[in-house]
Amino acid sequence: MRRFITNIDAEWSDVDGEVTAYSNIMVYRNRRQRDQAVVYGGRRDRLRRVHGKWRLVARHISIDQRVVLDKNLCYFM
Predict the structure, then answer these.
(1) Predicted TM-score of the model (pTM)
(2) Rounded distance, CA 3 to CA 34, Å?
(3) 31 or 61, which is more confident?
(4) Residue 28 C-alpha from the chain's centroid
(5) Beta-bridge partner residues of 76
(6) Closest Cα partner for 18 from 55, 51, 43, 44?
(7) Nearest Cα to 38, choosing from 46, 47, 29, 51?
(8) Beta bridge partners of 74
(9) Is 67 helix (H, G, I), strand (E, B) or coil?
(10) 30 has which bridge partners?
(11) DSSP state for residue 69 in the 8-state scheme
């Protein structure tokens, strides 16, 4: 499995100490000899600074395909 996260853009949130980050994602998965899947989409993450470190508060993933032909999407968890 290979994950690509590109075109990252961030802005300060309305909540003090939080940032909203937007990015594009591509996940390529190859299983066995002939089982392949590519999923494209966008992601919106909300990050909060806690004790000097950025922590993920919320994540929204929007997949571009209307019908996903992959057997599962467990790799987004």
Answers:
(1) 0.79
(2) 19
(3) 61
(4) 13
(5) none
(6) 55
(7) 29
(8) none
(9) coil
(10) 36
(11) -
**pLDDT over 70 for what percent of the chain?**
97
- Please state, in angstroms and as integers, the Cα–Cα distance from residue 15 to each residue in 8, 12, 46, 55, 58, following that order: 20, 8, 10, 14, 13
Please compute, for residue 34, the number of CA atoms within 13 A of its CA located in the half-sphere on the CB side: 0
**41, two tokens:** 């989409």
Class (C level, CATH) for 2-76: alpha beta
- Structure tokens given for 34: 């002939």
CA 60 to CA 42: how far, in whole Å?
8
Cα-atom radius of gyration of the chain, to the nearest Å? 15
Tell me how many degrees the CA angle 63-68-69 measures, rounded to the nearest 5.
150
Tell me, letter by letter, the H, E, C secondary structure of 16-42: CCEEEEEEEEEEEEEECCCEEEEEEEE
* Six token digits for residue 58: 């919320």
State the pLDDT at residue 62: 92
Measured CA to CA in angstroms, residue 59 lies from 1, 21, 31, 36, 67 at distances of 20, 10, 26, 25, 21
Spell out the domain ranges in the chain: 2-76
